[in-house]
Every structure is written in structure tokens, then in C-alpha cells.
Write a structure and sequence with these properties.
By secondary structure, the protein is an all-alpha fold. The protein has one domain: PhyR, sigma-like (SL) domain (Butyryl-CoA Dehydrogenase, subunit A, domain 3). The chain contains nine helices and no strands. Helix 1 packs antiparallel against helix 2, helix 6 crosses helix 9 and helix 8 packs across helix 9. The longest helix is centred in the C-terminal third of the chain and has 23 residues.
Length: 161
């Protein structure tokens, strides 16, 4: 892949990448921006190995997912929504936005469940595509989605009550 082709693809997918990472980082814009930058650098450095058989976005999201998992602070799991709320600061991109409760609840999920939920519901990937992105079996993705939904439902119910 030439530098020019990479730049064209990266520019086309930049917003989707940032949205994906913003959801994984539970609204923390600074972390999402740092991870997006790291992802693009890693993608560029390995772009010679990219084979145009799949979607560039899926390939980029796989790199982003691995970068997210390697970023320990973004992966920190909270016990409940109230604990996550204490971490919200002025760097949170969504502190007065409609999705704040969802970001807080997502923060209570382990990283793999958070990734599966984000890819499935927010990015509309199929279970098969998610399995490729996160290097897991389709059965594992289904279990992560089921556990994630159950935990989100419980956290959001507790937050309302």
C-alpha cells in the first residue's frame, strides 16, 4: 500500500475510528484521541502487510482494539456506575451529552465485553466480523455480548433506581 493510498483510506475512516475509540474509552476524549493516534501510527507502520481482501475499516478497528486492550487506564473496569461517575472529568467528551449514562455503564464492563458491545451495537458489525476483529471465536463473541447486555441492563437499572 502506498503512502497516498493509506492516507486516503485513513482520512475516510478517521471519524469512525474516533467514534469507536470514544465509546471504548467511555467518553474520555483525551484517551480516545491518544489511542486513535497510536492506532494510525501502528497501521501505517504495518500497512505494507495489509492485503486489500477485507475492509480497511475492519483491519483498522482490529489494530485499534488491540491498542485499546494494551492501554491499561482505558481498560480499567469500575464496580458500578457511581464509581465510574467519580472518574468523569472535564476531559470527558460527553459529560453533558445524552449518552453519558451509557458511557458510565460501559465503564463497568470488562474490556472484551465492552469491545463486543461497542462493535455490535454502535458500529453494527456482525458476530463473524467481530470475531475476526477481536481474535475470538463466534461463540465467544456471543457469550461476551450476552454477558455484556446482562451487566449493562443491571447497571442501568441500578442507576435509575
Amino acid at each position: 500500500m502506498t503512502r497516498e493510498v493509506f492516507i486516503t483510506y485513513a482520512e475516510r475512516e478517521q471519524e469512525a475510528l474516533r467514534s469507536f475509540l470514544l465509546a471504548l474509552c467511555c467518553g474520555n476524549k483525551d484517551d480516545a484521541d491518544d489511542l486513535a493516534q497510536d492506532t494510525l501510527v501502528k497501521a501505517y507502520l504495518s500497512s505494507a502487510g495489509y492485503q486489500d481482501r477485507g475492509r480497511f475499516r475492519s483491519w483498522l478497528f482490529k489494530i485499534a482494539h488491540n491498542t485499546f486492550l494494551n492501554h491499561k487506564e482505558s481498560c480499567r473496569t469500575m464496580e458500578n456506575v457511581d464509581e465510574a461517575r467519580t472518574l468523569i472529568s472535564s476531559t470527558s467528551a460527553d459529560s453533558s451529552f445524552q449518552h453519558q449514562d451509557l458511557y458510565l455503564a460501559l465503564r463497568t464492563l470488562p474490556p472484551k465485553e465492552r469491545s463486543a458491545i461497542t462493535l455490535f451495537y454502535l458500529n453494527r458489525y456482525s458476530i463473524k466480523e467481530i470475531a475476526k476483529i477481536i481474535d475470538a471465536s463466534e461463540e465467544a463473541v456471543k457469550k461476551q455480548l450476552s454477558r455484556g447486555r446482562d451487566k449493562l441492563r443491571e447497571q442501568l437499572r441500578m442507576d435509575k433506581g
